Amino acid sequence: MLRTKTCGELRRAHEDETVKLCGWVNSYREQGKELVFVDLRDRYGKTQVVFRTDDSAEIDARARKLRREDVIQVEGVVRYRGDDLVNPKLETGEIEIRVSALTVFSKSKTPPFELEGGELPNEELRLKHRFFDLRRSTLQENIRLRHDLSQAVREYFNTRDFLEIETPILGRSTPEGARDYLVPSRVHHGAFYALPQSPQIYKQLLMVSGFDRYYQIARCFRDEDLRADRQPEFTQIDVEMTFVERDDVLDMIDGLVTSVIKKVKGIELEGSLPRYTYADVMERFGSDKPDMRFGMELIDIGDVGAVSDFGVFKAVVEGGGRVRGINAKGASEKYSRRLLDKDLKDFVGEYGAKGLAYMKVAGGKLESTIAKFFSEDQQAEIIKRMDGEDGDLLLFVADKPAVTSAALAALRNRLGKELELYDPETFCPLWVVDFPLLTWNEDEKRFDAEHHPFCEPNKEDVELLESDPGKVRADSYDLVINGYEAASGSVRIHDSQVQQKIFDLLNINEEEAESRFGFLLEGLRYGAPPHAGVALGLDRWVMLLAGDDNIRDVVAFPKTQRASDLLSGAPARVDDHQLKDLRIEIEGLDEDDE
User: Please, is 580 exposed, middle or buried when counting C-beta atoms within 10 Å of its C-beta (0-12, 13-18, 19+)?
Assistant: First the structure.
């Protein structure tokens, strides 16, 4: 072994032992002509090593040529630093290594940026030098956390009769919303594989095959516009079970969530996770993924606005819209008129709102440029309904119902963070159930699947499939944690006739259904058990557990928001002979494509 200990391992109990350490030079300083101090670093920690001229002039001379990020091996004796020299900031701060041998494995170029201290450089530079960026302790801790989470997941399912089964990466294109990544076949000219958006169809077929409990930590791919919490290639914890109902799946994942959070973060969650209906959270929070670490629920005052003298509210209600608001408790003096009239108004405008009305509560009345349009009784009713107290800031959006939900949900999340209404170290998971089965696509005048085409309709709503399909609820569910969707799943359709009825509503005729999903439909015709499942986004879980808000910080080699790998230069042009093998020609390249 090139090393006998790691750089985070040694303590005073190891005093007088001779050890070998390997690592990177984290810092370097000379003390006159007698001493050279180096902090040696590996992923386990740091240890101070000392080179003394009176021990070896030759080693001391070589030590004075060391620079940051050189990779070295040292051998020496563990010494106690002395009571006055202990460094409490280091776990190894009681000891140091008095070096008797030095090996330089490799020299480093000047680092592209500092790993510690000061502000980090822009993300583009860090992603270009990702191998170096990954030396930062924060990222190393995130990757370790990812490992711990994966192991906790496997341990949980392995003790509950689940089998870990791999499904294909090269499959058939079955578009379900996002674009597929396509892979041309050299052998089958003109045909393409698709990288899986999820193992959805394969895991359903595993249930048909008799594997009653399956899980997989699966790689998935979606060619979609990216955000800070999305990547084009991602990892999900995929789960499927047979002979179960919705609550069986939710109970199983309740146990996983509480087990993982306790094991990885040391936080106890008591009892089953709370369950809310989609209709309830949309009405109360304007979002199907509400952050429940704080209150600030949406309140409707449309009836008051309709009878007031404020023309904007009256017109919106008469046109079928809604007037809804939130109460930023105690925030009336924290937001200036300029911020309210410009910044927050522009913010809700990004979600379709045409304006933002606001009123402050003072002396039991409302203060605002629009307060005069409301009678004393109307003001009193608004204050009562909004649970207003002196010093509160009431904010309102009057618009189409969907716009009020989207704009106020986003504003609620922003204010919750700015006003520090929650402890960022807490976790508030919940289930949202009974999503709509279908949503109306106004542009194409047809229904789309809210989740995917394989969700079982709620048994209470089956009759509505013929008369009013837009009101049918799906037997589906999302796990939400701190305002993020952390998992999504549903009871699956196991009857091929019901599946075709859903396809009909989605304007997928029998011929097209057979073309796109024939291998699933054929499986359902050979005796399919009732089954249900869920998929948890592993990357997003790590991000939440790490207290981060950028998913790229928890992926070893992530892509940018333009789906580029700045480290390797992917995607890139390929040699002409490779295209010739595939019988593909590239046409119409412009400068932006080079």
Answer: exposed
What DSSP state is assigned to residue 329?
T
Nearest to 300 by CA among 313, 309, 315, 287: 313
Residue the block writes with tokens 């080179």: 51
Please check whether residue 11 is in contact with residue 81, taking contact to mean a CB–CB distance below 8 angstroms: no
Q: Is residue 449, in this structure, part of any structural domain at all?
A: no
Residue 21 covered by a domain: yes
User: Whole-angstrom Cα distance, residue 55 to residue 70?
Assistant: 22
* Cβ atoms within 10 Å of 519's Cβ, excluding its own: 14
- What are the two backbone dihedrals, phi and then psi, of residue 211, each rounded to the nearest 5 degrees? -85, 95
Tokens of 342: 């410009």
- Given phi > 0 = left and psi -120 to 50 = alpha, else beta, which region is 529? beta
Angle, in degrees to the nearest 10, between helices 137-158 and 538-546: 120
Give the burial class of 583: count Cβ atoms within 10 A of its Cβ; 0-12 exposed, 13-18 middle, 19 or more buried: exposed
CATH number for 308: 3.30.1360.30
Give the C-alpha distances (Å, rounded to integers) separating 165 from 155, 181, 220, 238.
Answer: 15, 23, 15, 10
Respond yes or no on whether the N-terminal peptide bond of residue 571 is cis (omega within 30° of 0).
yes
Phi-psi domain of 19 (left: phi exceeds 0; alpha: psi -120 through 50; beta: other): beta
Total domains in the fold of the chain: 2
Residue 464 lies in a domain: no
Mean pLDDT of the 361-376 span: 94
Of the candidates 85, 106, 127, which is a domain's last residue? 106
Tell me the average pLDDT of the chain: 93
Using CA atoms, how far apart are residues 111 and 115, in angstroms rounded to an integer? 9
Q: Which of 398, 418, 438 is the last residue of a domain?
A: 418
Q: How far apart are CA 170 and CA 196, in angstroms?
A: 7
We report the CATH number of the domain holding residue 74 as 2.40.50.140
Q: Containing domain of residue 414, as a range?
A: 294-418
48 is a domain residue = yes
Distance in angstroms (rounded) separating the CA atoms of residues 170 and 182: 9
d(CA 327, CA 360): 10
Assess whether pLDDT exceeds 70 at residue 175. Answer: no
Answer positive or negative: Cα dihedral of 303, 309, 312, 318. Answer: positive
Report d(CA 100, CA 79) in Å as an integer. 13
Is the CB of residue 90 less than 8 Å from the CB of residue 46? Answer: yes
**Three state DSSP letters for 11-22:** CHHHCCCEEEEE
Confidence class for position 590, pLDDT limits 50, 70, 90 = low
354-366 pLDDT tens trace? 999 999 999 999 9
Residue 355 CB contacts under 8 Å (≥ 6 apart), including other chains:
312, 345, 348, 397, 398
Task: Count CB atoms within 10 A of the CB of residue 375.
Answer: 13
One-letter amino acid identity for 524? L
Is residue 2 within 8 Å of 20, Cβ to Cβ? yes
Report the pLDDT averaged over residues 456-480.
92
